[in-house]
Design brief:
Helix content is 37%, strand content 29%. The chain is α+β, with helices and mostly antiparallel strands. The chain has a single domain, classed as 3-Layer(aba) Sandwich (GIY-YIG endonuclease). The radius of gyration is 13 Å and the shape is globular. The model has no long low-confidence stretch (mean pLDDT 89).
Amino acid sequence: MNIFYVYLLISKRNNKYISYVGYTNNLENRLKLHNTSKGAKFTKGGIWFLAYSMKYLSKSIAMKEEYLLKNDKKKRYLIKINFLNNENYNSITL
């Protein structure tokens, strides 16, 4: 049985925090691809941090949830603020 993940990444570009939403079946490998500029075109050239991920048991459900998260600006904003205010994040420089 495959497990799929919906994830949200955060990076800093031009003194502004930006986010990227995607789905994958291998979260660790996908993050490496984004950070080596081999992931999505939008993520090239940046250092990306995983701010949110959720597991799903089917690809179709993961794709639906990815779509919903991409279009829910309020939820993305809240995830971003929560990540930036996290204690563990204070030692990370974006």
